Amino acid sequence: RITWDCHADRQSMSSTLDDYRRTLCPTFDRAFSTLLDDLHQRGLLAETLVIAMGEFGRTPRLNANGGRDHWPGCWSIVLAGGGVRGGQVIGVSDRIGAEPISRPVSCPELVASVYNAMGLPLSTRIAGPERRAWPLVDTASIRGLVD
């Protein structure tokens, strides 16, 4: 069974990087682009933020079974619609995808960017324990991402 979890442990997670190339990525590409086309044709893309991401990147080198394990140092995210300026790449990794070398993006920046795209003011405060108001986020959104 081919899955996105490509550890290639030869047990429950047997997918390899080659499965990504042959099956998973072409399938994802067709589905993602069809979703964006459909939203555009219905006039909904400008108000719908579409995000494709996982919780980790993948190790820059194959493991002994030809797969890749979790790697928190560097990963890719695709955003479209919802006011996001398309056609840009923000940040660059080293040549093997191990670490960011230019303009790393933090998780709080990504969350702030999603809130910004949704029109939620980043100055919003929410009720916390003991009626203390907590900031929704305490960072700015990714500069240049959302119009």
Describe this structure in words.
This protein has 147 residues and is α+β, with helices and mostly antiparallel strands. Helix content is 24%, strand content 16%. The chain is built from two helices and eight strands, in the order H-E-E-E-E-E-E-H-E-E. The strands form four sheets. The protein has a two-stranded antiparallel ribbon with strand order 1-4. The chain is globular and about 50 Å long. The mean pLDDT is 89.
Element layout with pairings:
Elements: H1 17-41, E1 49-52, E2 57-58, E3 70-71, E4 78-81, E5 92-93, E6 100-102, H2 107-117, E7 125-127, E8 133-135
Largest sheet: 2 strands, antiparallel
**Mean of all residue-level pLDDT scores:** 89
Note the overall shape.
globular
Number of strand segments: 8
Q: What percent of the residues sit in helical stretches (DSSP H or I)?
A: 10-25%
Unreliable stretches: none
Structural class: alpha+beta
Gyration radius from CA atoms, angstroms:
18 Å
- What distance separates the N and C termini? 41 Å
Order of helices and strands: HEEEEEEHEE
Q: Count of helices?
A: 2
Strand order of the largest sheet: 1-4
Residues in β-strands, percent: 15-25%
Defining key terms:
single chain; 147 residues; alpha+beta; two-stranded antiparallel ribbon; two-stranded antiparallel sheet; 2 helices; 8 strands; 24% helix; 16% strand
